[in-house]
Amino acid sequence: MKVDRVSVLICTYNRARLLRETLAALRTLECPDCDVEILIVDNNSTDNTRAVVEEAARESTMPVVYLQESQQGKSFALNRGLAHATGDIIALTDDDVLPAAQWLTRLVEVFRQRDVTFAFGKVAPRWGSLPPPELLTPRAQDIWGPLAIVDYGDTPVEYLPDSTGQRLPIGANLAFSRAALVTIGGWRTDLGKVNNTLISGEDHEIFVRLRRHGLYRGYYAPDAMVRHYV
To answer: What is the pTM of this model?
Structure first.
């Protein structure tokens, strides 16, 4: 796939302090051999999110774009970002994540070298406080999902159209072909946590539609890593 431009997409809601750290980390990335834009979609924050983004825009060598989505819910915010994105690939991460220096470069390499519509890597924990030791055991990995931790080992894995039962990515570290997202219609807005409900699944449902459209081709690149605040 030809990649001339990447859109890094972050949706945020009242996480200004953590978002500032994420934006600072993005400024230190090893830049891939293509244009990069950073899109921040503010989903009705009442803190100083806008000021944080404007500050980052002044200090960054990459374009940092502030967008607003008034309809509450992550899927609405993601679709707002998709509508404004100009990249050939859209790299998703969260407003409390610190990407490794080579994160974006590695994702771009995957799309350039392989026939894929999505790629992802590890999401390591950045503990806010010392976790109980039983949470760090291999057995505990079965319940890491709600903590937004992903570690599927150190071996790269292909996600093929006929493969089933493989553990799927999460939105804290996940890149898509923009064309594929547009083809399937973006994210379903009836999924995702809204107004303190527990409805979720927007991260996984999108792979169902990729299959239905014959676009399910992915790659797990463990060295495309980020650290997520827990």
So the answer is: 0.90
